[in-house]
Amino acid sequence: MMDATKQFGHFIELYEPTPPLLGVYHLIKTASCNWTYKEGEDVCRSFALV
Hints:
Order of helices and strands: EHEH
Shape: flat
Low-confidence stretches: none
Radius of gyration: 16 Å
Helix content: 25-40%
Distance between the termini: 27 Å
């Protein structure tokens, strides 16, 4: 974690692009591309990795 509070007002976390992490990113991207908002629908969704 890098302290960038003086420059940006927050910390920065850097992650190594490992296959499991990239898989999570792919899962989230795929879910977002196949989703259409419907009026009144909860925009927060949960998902399971297992």
